[in-house]
Amino acid sequence: MENVGQSIRKIDGMAIAMGKPVYTEDLAMPNALVVKILRSPHAFAKITSIDISNAESLEGVECILTFKDVPNARFTLAGQSYPEPSPYDRLILDQIVRYVGDEVAIIAAVDEKTALLAMKRIKVKYEVMEPVLDFEQAIGHPSVVHPEEDLSCNFEIGLQKENNITSSSHEEVGDVDEEFKRCAVVVEDVYYPQAQAHTMMETYRAFTYLDHAGRLIAVSSTQVPFHIKRQLARALQIPASKIRVIKPRIGGGFGGKQTGAGDVFAGLVTLKTGKPAMIIYDRKETFSATTSRHAMRLKVKLGADQEGFIRAIDMQVLSDTGAYGEHAPTVLGCVGHYTLPLYNKTRAVRFDGKAVYTNKMPAGAFRGYGATQGTFALESTVNMLAEQLKMDPTEIRLKNISKVGETFLTGQGVMLGSSTLDRCIAKGKELIGWEEKFPRREVGYNKVRAVGMAITMQGSGIANIGTASAEIRLNDDGNFTLLTGATDMGTGCDTILSQMAAEILEVPMEKIIVHAGDTDTSPYDPGSYASSTTYVAGGAVVKASEELKHKILAQSAAILGVAPQDVEFDGLAVRTISGDQEISFAKLAELTILGTGKLQLVGYATQGCEVSPPPYIAGFAEVEVDQETGKVDLIDYVAVIDCGTVINPNLARIQAEGGIAQGIGMALYEQVRYDEIGKMATNSFMQYKIPSRKDVGKVRIAFEESYEPTGPFGAKSIGEVVANTPPPAISHAIYNAVGVRENHLPITPEKVFLGMQKL
Amino acid sequence: MQIELTINDKVVKWEVANDEFLADTLRSHGFLSVKKACDTSCCGLCTVWMDGKSMLSCSVLSLRAHSKKITTIEGLPKEAEEFAQILSAEGAEQCGFCSPGFIMSVLAMKNELVNPTEEEIIHYLTGNLCRCTGYMGQLRAIKIYLGVA
Ligand code: FES
Ligand code: FES
């Protein structure tokens, strides 16, 4: 193939690398009002009075808005397909504030200095209430985070607000308790994956203005333009037809930008003043007033028979969704959905989970979306089980993993269409040198090196929910325009989607103009999340391109006066198979669009899938642990990936390397922490450490391609699955090195040191 | 206050406030390659050169740029593009937000270090954070650029 499977550079690569003005802030009008937010200093409080008179009178202040000025319709910031499963539990501004950082007032002024000065002059009185800070104490806590009557849900999600339960999930096949009794070996443990911050380099931002028709235009650094449009319509109580959302280049998202942030505030200011408005969250706000990964407690129990077949799995999850329920039910569900299908020799499986409200920053979508937490817990337990059974950890996986053509207990009969996970494991073993290195060896100076491993899966799109549309047309000049709603956030989907179109239409990529991420012109796409883009949007692009190809062939044949089966594509033309006649695309365009043909040729398709085929990874870590200090150095990380056909190897590899670095951060360094009154203690890069280039060791990626029959060119997803293996694999390696099994992430030197003392 | 400085080989006179930082001044004059990603001098995205040495423009008062030579990536189109081509051939400009600052550091490193080892490269560039790429692709690009294996 000329395009698919090639490491083609990104079409926007040079512009972004050279710092061209293509991001939200670069595009904002210079006269835009600066929007700032006054935030709550209390974790849980009721505003009893708010005096803005001294602030309002300041020269240059355009407007100050409080809870009295906002529409009274609760909504969710979760960027999800309508009807959203997340509860409608927030107002733009509310009289009750539910975490330190919750919004109290919106200030718009001519410049930042004035806005900040005005903020200082706002006088607020609070009735402070007892906050719910420990998520393990949330159920039955005397304080109720969301007592309001008008909170609503689109679905029955198991919400019990009086108990602070946001959502509940239960799934059970077979008799788990009976099955455990029959097992030769049963192991169980409890895990605490932490809240993790996305820390995309471009913080949250949006700028809004009214266009010539009085419509609200939001240029937003978002992964979900269509969902932002719907959110704005609901929150601001204006018709969706009056809103347009445009996504320019964006500086990273990782799921964070699947949740709305400042759009509603800037939008409200523009509606109230009629003026352009710009909101930029600073790093502190991005850390402390947006979303993080859900912190969780997971209890996992596994039972296996004498031969090492895993027969029963029980997983109990408690998820901390913080002050608002963005993504609470779905992340919770994905903990099980993206881990339990790994192993299908089971006879009984049970999943039980609850997400709870607390008075902390909300959790939200983060690359991995529950699978990351679930993988840490399940895979760590599988490693324990292997040890109990005296089996090699790689062998127990090979014995138990689901294979092509097989089903799994909780999967309602869906057959696995593609997997090379067994080959991924074999290849990873070879690359890391498993045979020589497992489990540990002394390297002198009190240091010991050891290896560990884990496997993981994710989905590709959301089965029966995620749909994407694409349109491609032959332009008047013989070039093509591809319209898609897919949201390139640096991941390169504008490029890979045009690679796919170019492959089908047999034209060079330069002939294709991509226009994406604009709700006025793009066909609908939910956005870039749920590992959807390559698989779902890619599927739409393939279908649309095929449709256009057929139309071009048919139309050319008609013009050439032959039957459609007698023509074929040839470069930028269609020719008869006999070779005696041909018509160029440019000529065809001229005749169909400009001339008498009166028919612009367009391919259009909407793609939605009944399945969500899992990509797989086998991850292997080699660490060096200092037995004196507990310091852990990551020496080598190997990830072998089955993402189906690799559409663009370089871009896929960067996705993998970046996701693994985030997983390394989660395993060893990163943690969102709060102080005793619920104030975030990690609101800058000084307190919240993300891996620098010194901390990632050596990360090596290999692909073991499978062919997914339902995927475009056989492709599956890659964006999220890459984040999942480092926590369990690194934790396993540390255990193999020094015997410390640390289940509270991140595994810091202190924890390893203290753990060694206890041995 | 008025300062006079050379920006990308052009002498300019700018009005700046006493408490204004260079990164903001540069952006307000249209040098939009200069990005900011932290408030604590931690990320390196705002890296520009002052008198040929790389520095964090978010942490230097604009007043301090008086009579200095400031260089942004806009002022090094050829050199920067040569490396950017290699970087993007690796796919290692993912969201690209960190790239201009990173490239300014790489070009400064090339001027400063002769035949650097991998450790020296990593050490020199530690202050340039990237959340997207995991750094490996950037390192591959640098090695190609410097012609080291
Ligand atoms: S903006 Fe982060 S170091 Fe300058
Ligand atoms: S490429 Fe996105 S932060 Fe580096």
From TrEMBL, chain A:
Annotated Aldehyde oxidase/xanthine dehydrogenase a/b hammerhead domain residues? 18-130
Q: Which InterPro entries match?
A: Ald_Oxase/Xan_DH_a/b, Ald_Oxase/Xan_DH_a/b_sf, Ald_Oxase/xanthine_DH-like, AldOxase/xan_DH_MoCoBD1, AldOxase/xan_DH_MoCoBD2, AldOxase/xan_DH_Mopterin-bd_sf
The domain of life is Bacteria
Question: Which keywords does this chain's UniProt record carry?
Answer: Molybdenum, Oxidoreductase
| This protein's name | Molybdopterin-dependent oxidoreductase
Q: Which organism is it from?
A: Desulfosporosinus nitroreducens
TrEMBL record, chain B:
This chain's protein is named 2Fe-2S iron-sulfur cluster-binding protein
Instruction: Please tell me whether the keyword Protease is annotated for this protein.
Output: no
- Highest taxon of the lineage: Bacteria
Question: What is a single Pfam family found in this protein's UniProt entry?
Answer: Fer2
Q: Where is the 2Fe-2S ferredoxin-type domain?
A: 1-76
The UniProt keywords, alphabetically, are:
2Fe-2S, Iron, Iron-sulfur, Metal-binding
